[in-house]
Amino acid sequence: MSPGVNNESFSKGNIFGTKNIFINAIEISKTICKSKLTNGDIAVDCTMGNGNDTAFLCNLVGEKGKVYAFDIQEIAVINTRNKLQELNFLKRAELILDTHQNVGKYIKGKVKLVIFNLGYLPKGDHKITTKKETTIEAVQKCIDILEPNGIILLVVYTGHENGKLEKEALDSYTSILSQKDYNVANICFINQINNPPELICIEKVCPR
Ligand SMILES: C[S@@+](CC[C@H](N)C(=O)[O-])C[C@H]1O[C@@H](n2cnc3c(N)ncnc32)[C@H](O)[C@@H]1O
C-alpha cells in the first residue's frame, strides 16, 4: 500500500475537502503528521499503547521509512504487533519494550517527527501511566535527535490529576526553550467542556 493513498482508514478527508481540522488534539496532531512526513522519513511513537498512532505513522513514512515505537507494557507491544501485521506494516516498525527516556539507546540518527499520546492505556491498568519527570526527560532526549524542521507532538490529558501535573511540567519546560531554535505552540479548546486534551508542538527551527 502506498503512503497516504487509496486507503480509507487513513483518508485525508472527504472528496469535497470539507473535513474540519480543529476537531480535537488528536485530529490536529494527525494533520500535522500528514504535513510533515513523507516516504522514507523516520518517526517515533513514544507511547505505543494499542498501536493506533504507530500504524498511522507507518502509513505516512511508507515502505522506505521507519517508525520506532516505545511502551513499558508488554500488552502494548503485542497489540501493536498484531495491528501492524494485519496492515502489512511490520517491516516499517521497530517495537521496543522500554521506557521512552531510552530513545537514544535505540535510535542513532536524526528523526523527523515524535509523537507522545500521554496518560494510560484505554481499558488497561490506569496506574501504569506516563509521569511528569520521565515525560520531560524523554522530551529532552527526543529534542537531541530531532532534525531541523522536525517536530515533537504531545497530546496531554488534563482531566485527571496526573495529566494536570504533566501539563504544568511541560509548560515550564517548553516555555523557556529558545525562540531562536524552537517554535513552541500549545493548542487548547477554550469553548469545550470537560477538560479536552491539549496539544503541545515543539518544532525545531530550520537553520537559514
Ligand atoms: C494513551 S496510551 C497511548 C495510546 C497509543 N498511542 C495508541 O495509539 O493506542 C499511553 C501509553 O503510554 C505508555 N507509557 C507510560 N509510561 C511510559 C514510558 N515511560 N515509556 C513508554 N511508554 C509509556 C502506557 O503504557 C500506555 O500504553
Q: Which SSEs are present, and which pair or pack?
A:
Blueprint: H1 25-36, E1 42-45, H2 52-61, E2 66-71, H3 74-87, E3 93-97, H4 103-106, E4 111-117, H5 132-144, E5 146-156, H6 161-175, E6 182-187, E7 198-204
Helix pairs in contact: 5-6
Describe this structure in words.
The longest helix is centred in the C-terminal third of the chain and has 15 residues, at 161-175. The protein has 208 residues and is an alpha/beta fold. Helix 5 links the parallel strand 4 (111-117) and strand 5. A seven-stranded mixed sheet has the order 3-2-1-4-5-7-6, sandwiched between helices. 33% of the residues lie in helices and 22% in strands. The chain has one domain (20-204): Rossmann fold (3-Layer(aba) Sandwich). The structure holds S-adenosylmethionine (SAM). S-adenosylmethionine binds at residues 47, 49-53, 70-73, 76, 99-100, 117, 119-121, 128-130, 134.
Which CATH architecture would you pick?
A: 3-Layer(aba) Sandwich
Q: Structural class per helix/strand content? A: alpha/beta
- Could you tell me the CATH topology label: Rossmann fold
The strand count comes to 7
Biggest sheet strand line-up: 3-2-1-4-5-7-6
State the CATH class: Alpha Beta
Rg, nearest Å? 16 Å
What do we call the CATH homologous superfamily?
A: Vaccinia Virus protein VP39
Give the CA-CA distance, first to last residue.
Answer: 36 Å
The ligands bound in this entry are: S-adenosylmethionine
Shape: globular
Helix content: 25-40%
What does the average pLDDT come to? 93
Work out the helix count. Answer: 6
List low-pLDDT spans: 1-9
